[in-house]
Specification:
This protein has 184 residues and is α/β, with parallel strands linked by helices. It has 6 helices and 7 strands, in the order ααβαβαββαβαββ. It has helices at 2-12, 24-32, 49-56, 68-80, 119-129, 152-158; strands spanning 39-43, 60-65, 85-89, 102-108, 130-141, 163-170, 176-183. The protein has a 7-stranded mixed beta sheet, with helices on both faces. The radius of gyration is 15 Å and the shape is globular.
Amino acid sequence: MRRLFFTLLYWFSRPRWDTDITPPQLVDLIEIQKFKTGRALDLGCGTGTNSIYLAKHGWEVVGIDFVGKAINTAKQKAKAANVNVEFFQGDVTRLDFLNPPFDLILDIGCFHSLPIDRRSAYINGARRLLTSGGVFLCYAFKPEARMSGLAPDEMIELFQDGFVNTKVEHGEGMPSAWYWFSRK
């Protein structure tokens, strides 16, 4: 049912999260903090805005989303931007087809929408793929949002095995937060 909902959004409207704007948290990590260039994995990449941003900044990027329309649009946008990004239509809780290591994993609004019984598969995949010292940057809604969400302490607890939380930045407007994790 979730897949149908998201597919319909991409076919009949422009989802409100598909802004074509890279969030300042990612820009800060890449351009201000000068996080070392390497391999990046964009989970729930949508139409590829952030994957393309990373590729433009020298990253080797893989983007995954389960909506075929979003992936097709992402491929077109990457071609128009003259960057190479590998895009896959797939399930972010089934990442066995990918080979580690990745230096950065990005998730902007995907994890909080996963069914509770699939979250551990997602976390195990991220733990397997992210290199020691790599960064996992995740944006997630809080429970006060009108949809599924996680409290910051719950989010940190879910990722405590294999990850260290280095920063939490509470969002403005929609009850949300940005989480920075480092792979142990």
